[in-house]
Amino acid sequence: MTAITGVGAYAPRFRITADAFEDAWGQFQAAGVNEKAVAAADEDALTMAYEAGTRALEAAAVDPAEIDWLAFASTTPPLAEEDLTARLGAMLEVDETATRHVFAGSTRAGTRALWAGMDALASDATTGLVVAADAPQGDPDDGVDHAAGAGAAAFVLAAEGPAKIVDRSEYAVPYPGTRFRDSGANETQGLGVTQYDRTAFTETIGGAVSGLEAEPDVEAAAIQAPDGKLPYRAAGAAGVGTDEIQAAATVHDLGDLGAASVPVSLASALEDGYGSVLAVSQGSGAGADAFLIESDGDVPTNAALEGDDPLSYAEYLRQRGVVTTGPPSGGGAYVSVPSWRRSIPQRYNLEAGRCPECGALSFPPEGACSSCGALEEYESVQLSGEGSIEAVTTISQGGAPPEFAEQQARSGDYAAAIVALETDDGSEAASIAAMGTDADPDAFSVGDRIETTIRRIYTQEGVTRYGFKVRPAE
Amino acid sequence: MRDAYLVGAGQSDYGAFPEESYRSLFRTAFEAATESVPNGLEPSDIDEAFVGNLGVGGRQLGLSGPAVTEHVGLGGVPCTRVENACAASGFATRQAVQAVKSGMADVVLAGGFEIMSDMSSDATKYWLGVSGETEWERLSGTTFSGVYAQMASVHMERYGTTREQLSQVAVKNHANGAKNPHAQLGFECSLEDAQSAPVVADPLNLYHCCPTSDGAACALIVSEDVVDEYTDDPIRVAGVGAGSDNVGLFQRDSYTGIPASQRAAETAYEMAGIGPDELDFAEVHDCFAIAELLAYEDLGFCETGEAGQLIESGATELGGELPVNTSGGLKSKGHPIGATGAGQVVEAFKQLTGNAGDRQVEKPARGLTHNVGGSGGASVVHIFEREERNSSRNSSGHRPRETEAETEVSAR
C-alpha cells in the first residue's frame, strides 16, 4: 500500500486573464480558462519543483534526509539533457544516495512519477518524494499557448498515511498528432483535429478508468486539463459527474499545467478535505493513468496557489522571453561553473560558518573571519532563510550588470539588497548580498523582514545557475 | 626618510575620443606633465614609472604599463602597472612616493590611463562593476551604482540625508567642471535637472553617477635631492596614507562609511602633521554623489552623518571654506578609471601652482586628493603642500620645512 503523507503545491504570483488575451488577439482560444498563472522570468520547472517540494516536506514534517526516492516530472524541464534531480535533490537537501528519476515527454509524466513511486515503495524505498512542475509553452497564436499556465505539486509517499492510493490503472493506444513538440523546439503544438483530439482524450481516459477494480464513486475528480472544457467532456468516460471534476479543477484559474495538471488538482482536492478522489491524467501519444485515493480528509498540505499580480499581454510576452533577444555578448566579470558549484551549499542551503576563535558568523564561510581576522576552518552553521534588509536599492534599466539584462528586459526593475540572514533561533545573523524576487522592488525597504527562496540567477555559457533570492516574509 | 615632491602633472582631456588610442592619450598626458615642470624635465631624467590601469575592454590586460611608457620613449625604464580598480593611479602615485622616499629613485613618473568608450554599450557594461565582489555582490544584480545606492539607502535612513543633497553634489561639481577645459561633462546643471534625471539605482539617478570616460593623466614625483633642479616653488608630498578592505560591501562593518578611506586619511594627516581644518581644497572620489558625502565624513570634513548639511551649507563650493572637487570631480570632469587618481593630482598641482584658471582657489597652501577603488576595497589619500623658498609670491599659510620634517618623524 502507498499513502500520501504530505502535499505541497505552488503557482507563480503572476496572472493573465482571458480578457487580456482577447484584447490582444481579438479572441481567446482556451475555452474555460478565466485566467492563468505565468512563471516569472527567474522561474522555471526546476524552481517551481523546489517551491512545491520544500512545501511538501514541510507539510509532511519529514526530514529531507529520510527521502530515499525522488522523482521530478515535467514536459518543460529547463534542460533537455542533464539529470536535474541532482540539483533538485541538493536544493531540497535530499541525501546524495537517494534513488532519482526524471519523467518527461508527456503530460502524463507527473502521474508516471507517482506510479513509479508506488512501485519503489512496494520494493525497498521507505519515503518517496514525487514532484511535478510544468510551464507549457506554445506558439503565441496557438491555443496551446493561450491555455498554458504554470504550477507545481509535490507528494511525500510512505507505506502508511492519511491519503491511501487504493487502486491504479493505465491504458495506451496510438493517437499521433494531438499534442507534440519536436526535438529542439520550445513550443508545443497540435494539429487541432477537433473530434480526433477529443476521441483520443476520452478513449484513453475511459480505458484507464475502466481498468480500475471498481466503478469510481468519488467526491472529487482530478482530470487532465489541457483547457477548461476538455476534462468535462471526459466525465462520462471517467465515470464521474461534472461537479466532481469542478471540485478539483484548477485549470480555470491556473491554466494548463501540463504534467502538473492532475498533481496540482489532486493536491487541491486533498487540501479541501475530500475523502475520495479519482485522479486521471492523459498524455498525448496517447495514454492515461487512473488512481483512486481515499483520504481521511486531513492530509497535511502546504499549498501556495494564490496569485494576484496581473500582467498585460505585452508584459506576458516580456516575462516569458518571447519578445526579448537574450543576453548581450561580452566578457568582464566571470564566474566559472566550477566556482559556482563550490558555492552551491550556500546558494541552495545557506551554509554559513562559525569562527572557532571568536564565534562570529561568516557567509560565505571562507577566508579570514570578518570579526576577528582569524584564518581558521569554519564550523558549518545552516542559516534559517529568514532575516531582514540592511541596505537596498532598486536597479533600473541601465543599472543592471549585463548578465541580468535579459531578466530585466523580461521582468523589469528589481530590488538588490544586503540582507542579514538569521540562525534558526534568530539570535545571530550574517550579511550577504541578494536579489529581491516575487514582489515589486518597492516592497523591499531597510528593516523589512524577508525570507529566501531559490530561483534562476542567470545563464551563461548555456548553463543556468540557480541560487537563493529573497522575498518579503509571508 | 627623504621627502618627495610633486614637480609636474598633466592630463589629456577626459571624454569619448574615437580617434585616440590609449597610447596617444597617455602621450598627451605625459607631454603635458613634463611641460608643466617649471624648470623643465627630460624624459631621460625618469628613473622609474608606475602606471595605473584597470584594463577595461581587455585591450592590453598584461603589461599595459610598459606598453605606454615605451610608447612615450622612456626606453627601458622599469615600469610597474598598478591595478587597484578606480584607485589604480592614486596608488601608482603612492608607489612613486615610496620609490623616492626609499632612495631607490630620484625622478618617478606616476600615471594612469583608461579607454572606456570604444565598445558597444552592452560590452561596456560587462566591464562596469568588475571591481565589485563578483560571486555574490555582482550576482545579486548590482554594479557600483547599485552598491553605492545601497549605501545611500542606509545613510538616508539613518541620518536623514536627502535626494536633494545628493543632487547638490552634482550641481556643485558641474559648476566647477564647466570651468575646466579638460572636463568631459563641462556644463552647468540646475538643481531641477539633477533632481529630475532618470533613476539608475534608487535613490541614485543619472546625475548622481559619473560618466564612463577615456583619458590619461601623469604626475612627476622627485626627491628632495633633485627637486631644486626642477622648480623654485616646490610642492611637497606632505602626507600619504592608504587602506584596504573587503571587496564586497556586505562583508564590511559599515555601510555608511568607507573604513579604508578613514584609515588612509588618518595616516596621511598624521604624516603631514595637520588636520582637515588646515586644507585649502580637496579632490575627492565622487564616482556617485553619495560617495562625495561619505568622503566628507571619512576625511573629517564634518562629523559622521552631517555630510548632507555640509553640502547644503555651500562650504564645499568654489569660494567656500573648503572647496571640494574644483576640477569638476569624477562627476563632471570624468572618470577614466585607471587615470582618475593621477588626474586628481593634476588638479592639486594646478591649484597649488596657481594655474587653475577660472576655478582657482585663492592662494592655496595645501590640498588633499582622495581616490577610492571599487566601493571601498582600496583607498589612498595624498596631502600636497606648497613650500615656498625663493619666490615672494603667495606667502601665506605654510610652515618652515624643518618643522614639518620633524613632525613627520615624530608622527611615525
UniProtKB/TrEMBL annotation, chain A:
GO biological process: isoprenoid biosynthetic process
Highest taxon of the lineage: Archaea
Boundaries of every ChsH2 rubredoxin-like zinc ribbon domain copy: 343-374
An example molecular function term from Gene Ontology annotations: acyltransferase activity
Pfam families registered for this protein in UniProt: zf-ChsH2 (PF12172)
InterPro entries to which the protein is assigned, alphabetical: ChsH2_Znr, NA-bd_OB-fold, Thioester_dehydratase-like, Thiolase-like
Entry keywords, A to Z: Isoprene biosynthesis
PANTHER family: BLR3430 PROTEIN (PTHR34075:SF5)
Name recorded for this polypeptide: ACP synthase
TrEMBL record, chain B:
Domain Thiolase N-terminal: 14-225
SUPFAM superfamilies: Thiolase-like
Composition skew (Basic and acidic residues), residue ranges: 399-412
Keywords attached to this entry: Isoprene biosynthesis
A GO BP entry: isoprenoid biosynthetic process
Recorded GO MF terms: acyltransferase activity, transferring groups other than amino-acyl groups
InterPro entries for the chain: Thiolase, Thiolase-like, Thiolase_C_2, Thiolase_N
Ranges for domain Thiolase C-terminal: 241-386
Protein origin, superkingdom: Archaea
Name of one Pfam family that matches: Thiolase_N
Positions of the UniProt region annotated as Disordered: 367-412
NCBIfam families, per database record: PRK06064.1
Protein name as it appears in the record: Thiolase domain-containing protein
Organism: Natronorubrum halalkaliphilum
UniProt lineage: Archaea, Methanobacteriati, Methanobacteriota, Stenosarchaea group, Halobacteria
